Amino acid sequence: MIQNNASPTLDGLFRRILARRPNAPALLDPVNKQRVTGQPPKRLTFAQADRAISALSAHFIEAGLPANSVVAIQLPNTVEFMLTVLAAHRAGLIVALLPLLWRQAELTVALNRTGARAIVTTSKIDGVSHADLAMNAAAEAFSIRHVCGFGNDLPEGMASLDLALSGESATIGPAIQDGRKAAMISFDVTVDGFRAVPRTHLSLIAGGLVLALESDVLQGSTVMSAFAPSSFAGLTSSLVVWLLSGGALALHHPFDGEVLEQDINQYSCDTLVAPAQLALRLAEIDMASRLPTLRNVIGLWRAPEQVASSPNWTKEQATLTDVYLFGEAGLFGARRAADGAPAPILPGPHGAPREVPGSSIAGEIVLTPKGTLALRGPMVTPAAYAPAAPPGDSLVAPPSRDYVDTDYAARLDPSTGAICITAPPSGILAVGGYRFLSQDLQEWSKRLGQGALLTALPDRVSGHRLAGRAQDNARAREALAELGLNPLMVEAFRDRARPT
User: Are the C-beta atoms of residues 208 and 249 closer than 8 Å to each other?
Assistant: First the structure.
């Protein structure tokens, strides 16, 4: 028998909705899922989702994964992603989120850094054999004891989760779940290098509340998520906002404009979560005729320094909420007013929603003495970003602090007192949702021999884009792929004469 939670967990939120609305729509797959993964789209009610979650949870327990161990997930933005996260939590496990573009080099580092005991993937995503990637990375991670996946034609040694879903099991997870325990690990790159960032259930719920309350997502809403879920912002803006609103979560595998429009209309979505640059393009279309049900747009800014110079939102049909992302450190949101301009961001505590005096504190924005923006509050995990101990003197502990310095340069506007974010962290390159140290690019290019160059060029949409030059671009691509690097680096050496 399930006892009351010591404090809220994501599975606890799901069970509350299940008790009220077992036959209501819960999870809705992208309409083009067959193309993406080779599997037909699913539409699950809360009761159907609960049975799937229990089946996957039983599989993890019967595979011998002990409570509080880490299961790594590399899945597309489909129903299976959300089911796997909730199933892992029901089994008392911690989820490590692996971005889709990561290949063997990054996967191996992440698996070893977290001591992951299992990895979950699917056979193919957009034609790439992620099952083979997972098997190769698992072979280099000594902690991995179980490799499993969805889809057909899984390699030998990989357990089928589709088979687990079709079976019956009486195995149940821990009777008591605690929101204060670790729930998720995501991965960040700071000026000090690669970091694993753990968060509790309560931290995830705090992040979801910021988004849901600031953007005024109504109870029972159908939320369309078109943002990759393999990050703190991606998971909170999809899974957590869905569980807080108690409606349905529709998913879109980024990015196909025509398919996204079809997804929104087919599922009658009233809320869209998407990268801000994609969201702003909606102002260029006739939303009333093309997206008649859409009332709420949540735009996530991976490059928050660009918000202030963004165009005004001109669509009265839907409101726009700007969400400022700072890697995996944290986020905050601000809904645009009637004039469509970005709302001013003031230092200090910010509530949820901010229009209500005395509302609960969602977080706090701090300007550090060195002129950078810092975050603190229930969603922030300062320990994950604590500076390393001084070399050669292990008895000296690094200074403790209750905030995370994002390293984004910021200043106060003397006339309004609002914060102006002026520049991203120095030495870090952001390409969409992926961050690199600039010195790492130089190191990788050195491996390609004399005359090779790998650099980052400014890009208005994604922050940066990678460009490479070698004496033989084709051989350079092959060499980088053999090193297990992700396609962002490999395709930097594409032939510029070819269409992109």
Answer: no
In a domain, 31, yes or no: yes
Identify the bridge partners of residue 409 per DSSP, sorted by sequence position.
372, 423
The C-alpha atoms of residue 324 and residue 342 are separated, in whole angstroms, by 11
On whether the CB atoms of residues 456 and 464 are closer than 8 A, the answer is: yes
DSSP state of 239: I
Single-letter amino acid, residue 68: N
Residues 6+ apart with CB under 8 A from 292: 265
Q: What are 278's two structure tokens?
A: 């994609």
Single out the residue of 481, 486, 412 nearest to residue 100, CA to CA: 486
- Is the peptide bond preceding residue 326 cis, with omega within 30 degrees of 0? no
Q: Could you tell me if 470 and 454 are in contact, meaning their C-beta atoms sit under 8 angstroms apart?
A: no
* 63 domain-assigned: yes
Under a CB-based contact definition with an 8 Å cutoff, are residues 378 and 384 in contact?
Answer: no
Which CATH number belongs to the domain containing residue 474 in this structure? 3.30.300.30
Residue 315 DSSP class: -
Which stretch of DSSP H or E encloses residue 422? strand 419-423
Q: What residue numbers bound the domain in which 440 lies?
A: 428-493
Q: Across the chain, what does the average pLDDT equal?
A: 88
Contacts of 156 (CB under 8 A, 6+ apart): none
Instruction: CATH number of the domain at 69, please.
Output: 3.40.50.12780
CB distance 321 to 335 below 8 Å: yes
Number of domains present in the structure of the chain: 2
Mean pLDDT, range 443-462, rounded to an integer:
74
Tokens of 434: 């992926």
Q: Give 123-177 pLDDT, tens digit per residue.
A: 999 888 999 999 999 999 999 999 999 999 899 999 999 999 988 777 777 656 7
Domain membership flag for residue 174:
yes
Q: Are 116 and 93 in contact (CB under 8 A)?
A: no
> Residue 12 and residue 16: Cα distance in Å, rounded?
6
Tell me, what DSSP letter sits at residue 178? Answer: B
| Residue 449 identity (one-letter amino acid) | G
Q: Check whether the bond before 255 is cis (ω within 30° of 0).
A: yes
Alpha helices, DSSP H only, in 91-175? 104-114, 130-139, 161-166
Residue with tokens 């102002």: 283
Q: Which residue has the higher pLDDT, 479 or 364?
A: 364
Q: How many CB atoms lie within 10 A of CB 180?
A: 13
